[in-house]
Specification:
Helix content: over 70%
Structural class: mainly alpha
Largest sheet: 2 strands, antiparallel
Strand content: under 5%
Shape: globular
Number of strands: 2
Number of helices: 13
Strand order of the largest sheet: 1-2
Length: 377
């Protein structure tokens, strides 16, 4: 780093320019207050932008979710176009099916889930009492000698009372606001998804126009590969989760559970996380079946474990295909990192983002490195 000084004439003011900084940046010791004010204003502006982003986090999450859902519907549009249907009719058909599916879920599944969730919370104390009075629990307690189990179950029973849950969630008014915000966010996601599906090609063209002409073709190729891969990941994950939830629904209905739809919804959400989602729900479903009986828990554990093996080696390769070429260790690391940063939403988005980064590395970074066959001068 070198320092140059200059005399600006009669003012006698010396400007010291640091050549290691950009040419437009200069430090004027004669005006420390002006320099400090400019730097403070820049810091406040950055802080204000950060506050705006944090305040809009829910809106940004809704937009991101809608974009990924639209990419997940892209394979269906491409499949219809491959069968000879025009692009406009393909998009319209996918939109109509998506709207009908969402309307069916809202009209049929949501009321059942709400009623079953309420019944499940109300039945937990009685289920715990029945478990404590059962013969197998008494024999297990006597054999293992865990005297603290009754205190733990009593604490769980107290925790899952309706009054305590309302208190933890902020009261009835806060719960009402949460429900309204959830409904409005879901409506926003659906509307944005439909818009993104219908304008995806125009959006890709607009983004490509921002790139210089000599790089536009390569950028468009990489962008199309990313869109294809992300769409395949999202569509495959939703399909696998739907199959998983259907199996859970059938198992719990056969076992005689009154909250089968609730467990199916939980299975659908949890198994959206690749690789580790099914293992997580294996534990959750086994505990839920244990509240019914030990036999039900053993049956669920065996049947679901067999399905997890089939899913890993048969179902997933057939649905995902070769489009998603992400190493398993990166999937686990990405899912854990996304869950730590943004919860379930972050875990769901981590896999498509990781796949996109790998595409950029394979299509852009590695070819540039392969082209550098001589050391720089």
């Amino acid at each position: 780093m070198s320092i140059h000084s200059s005399e600006p004439g009669r003012s006698g003011r010396r400007t010291i320019a640091l050549t290691s900084f950009p040419k437009s940046l200069s430090v004027v010791p004669g005006q420390p207050f002006a320099t400090g004010f400019v730097m403070a204003a820049g810091a406040l502006l950055a802080l204000g932008l950060a506050i705006v982003v944090i305040s809009m986090s829910s809106v940004l999450m809704s937009i991101t979710l809608a974009l990924f859902l639209a990419l997940g519907l892209t394979p269906a549009v491409n499949a219809l176009k491959g069968r000879g249907m025009p692009h406009g009719w393909s998009v319209l058909t996918v939109i109509v099916v998506f709207v009908l599916l969402m309307a069916g879920v809202i009209a049929l599944v949501v009321p059942a889930i709400i009623s079953q969730f309420t019944a499940f919370i109300a039945s937990i104390p009685q289920a715990i009492d029945d478990m404590q009075s059962s013969s197998w629990y008494a024999e297990l307690s006597e054999t293992l000698g865990f005297s603290a189990s009754e205190q733990i179950l009593a604490a769980i029973e107290t925790y899952f009372t309706a009054q305590n849950l309302l208190a933890l969630s902020g009261g009835v008014l806060q719960v009402g606001f949460g429900i309204v915000n959830g409904i409005s966010s879901a409506f926003l996601v659906i509307v944005l998804t439909l818009y993104f599906v219908s304008t995806l090609d125009a959006m890709k063209l607009a983004v490509a126009r921002l790139i210089p002409a000599y790089r536009r073709e390569g950028f468009s190729t990489t962008l199309n590969a990313i869109v294809f891969t992300v769409g395949r990941v999202v569509a495959g994950a939703v399909t696998l989760s739907a199959i998983n939830a259907s199996l859970v629904l059938v198992i719990f209905l056969i076992l005689g559970s009154k909250v089968a739809i609730l467990f199916a919804l939980v299975a659908f959400l949890i198994t959206l996380i690749p690789m580790i989602g099914s293992v997580l729900f294996l534990c959750i479903g086994t505990v839920g079946a244990l509240l019914m009986s030990p036999t039900a828990a053993v049956i669920f554990l065996i049947v679901y474990f067999i399905y997890v093996q089939l899913e890993a080696y048969q179902v997933t390769p057939r649905i995902m295909g070769k489009a998603v070429n992400v190493p398993g260790v990166l999937i686990i690391i990405a899912a854990m990192t996304g869950a730590a940063l943004m919860g379930l939403f972050g875990a769901l988005l981590a896999i498509p983002i990781t796949a996109s980064i790998l595409i950029i590395v394979r299509e852009v970074v590695i070819p540039k490195r392969d082209a550098q066959i001589e050391p720089p001068a």
